[in-house]
Amino acid sequence: MSKQRPVPPSIQWESVSDEELLGMRVRDLRLRIEGTVLEERIQRLYGELEAKGIGLRPPCYLADEWLTPDGVPVIGIPFYLAHPRLTQLEKKMMLEAEGEGDAWCMKLLRHETGHAFNYAYRLHRRTRWRALFGRYSTPYGSIYTARPYSRRFVVHLEDNYAQAHPDEDFAETFAVWLAPGAAWEERYRDWPALKKLRYVDTVVRRIGNTPPPVATREMLWAASRKRSTLAAYYERKRRSLRDDFPGFYDRLLVRIFHARGVHQETPAKASHFLRAHRRHLVNSISMWTNQRKFDIDKLVRRLAARSDDLGLCVHRGEIETALEVAAFFTAVMGGVRRFDWRSEEP
User: Fold this and answer.
1) What is the DSSP string of 170-239?
2) Distance CA 104, CA 193 (A)
3) Dihedral over Cα of 89, 273, 298, 296: its sign
4) In this predicted structure, what is the pLDDT of residue 346?
5) How sure is the predictor about 95, in pLDDT bands with cuts at 50, 70 and 90?
6) How far apart (Å, rounded) are the C-alpha atoms in residues 210 and 123?
7) Do residues 172 and 157 touch, judged by C-beta distance below 8 A?
8) Are 49 and 57 spatial neighbours (Cβ–Cβ below 8 Å)?
9) What is the structure's pLDDT at 77?
10) pLDDT tens-digit profile of 280-321?
């Protein structure tokens, strides 16, 4: 691991190499929202809240990922979105940067605002909220199985995220309701999810401009307090994302690839096939499953190595094999996972 290197104010870390940047502590980057594109987006969010008659302005701060701390009406935004150089590094290390770009960032801001609004007014304690969304105390699972065509939930973020937990269901419903020009009455006409949207609309009309009972502003996992280097940050993040994947692979791998035949002189190794098509597999499967590219990439690499252990070879044509492999990975990555990769104190 790279040694920590505190950054003097005079150092322009934006222009250093990736290796040097990874050796720097997050807190020493002295990142701020002010003066960045995030500041404009947050002000746009506040304008959307004002237009909907909501007085709450959840404070936003730079954190290690998108989050709204449990019960606290504040919004954490990943620190890597505060500077293009860090966004570039995030994409290099994790293959994508969650929230990059205006539309994606605004979607996530609206979603986190849904959590903040819920916490500020303790809506999850209300009987009607529980009847519509479920119990807030329901434990988060490491995996949830989404039903993509269910009309009981709104569709906003990828992964059918409204189906992950009652709190996420409310946050997603709020985000759809808040988005300018969403026309949710028409979009969700005849959907059971419309009851949830109308609930949000009714609650906002009743309490939107009243002072919230919860005003705590504890900013957990703030980037300004992170003493770890960027290298350590990515080591933890990548390790937790690659540790486990759903499914039992050996049996399925053997169905696609075969062991080398007795009379087969120069068989193409399954591992070579997977590595040669890795980039295309990652991009395609991510598009169809909405899974993180990092997860898929690590799974492809793991199964390529496992194919060597099993002595597997390609025994069909390239197109047929590619179709089977794509179907296999799509099935394996079909489960949506949540990770808590933080190992340091907030």
Assistant:
1) HHHHHHHHHSTT--HHHHTTT-TTHHHHHHHHHHHHHHTTSPPS------TTBGGG--SBHHHHHHHHHH
2) 23
3) positive
4) 40
5) confident
6) 14
7) yes
8) yes
9) 98
10) 988 888 888 878 888 888 888 888 888 888 889 998 888 899
CB-hemisphere CA count at 13 Å for 40?
A: 7
Q: What are phi and psi of 143, to 5 degrees?
A: -140, 140
Environment class of residue 29 by beta-carbon count within 10 Å: exposed (0-12), middle (13-18) or buried (19+)? buried
Distance CA 157, CA 252 (A): 31
The predicted structure's pLDDT at residue 2 = 45
Mean of all residue pLDDT scores within the chain: 87
Domain map (residue ranges) of the chain: 26-225, 244-337
Q: Is the pLDDT of residue 111 over 80?
A: yes
Q: Compute the C-alpha angle 326/263/322, nearest 5°.
A: 10
Q: Map residue 1 onto helix, strand or coil.
A: coil
Which residue in the block uniquely carries the two structure tokens 């390529």?
A: 304
Q: Is 183 left (phi over 0), alpha (psi -120 to 50) or beta?
A: left
pLDDT at 300: 87
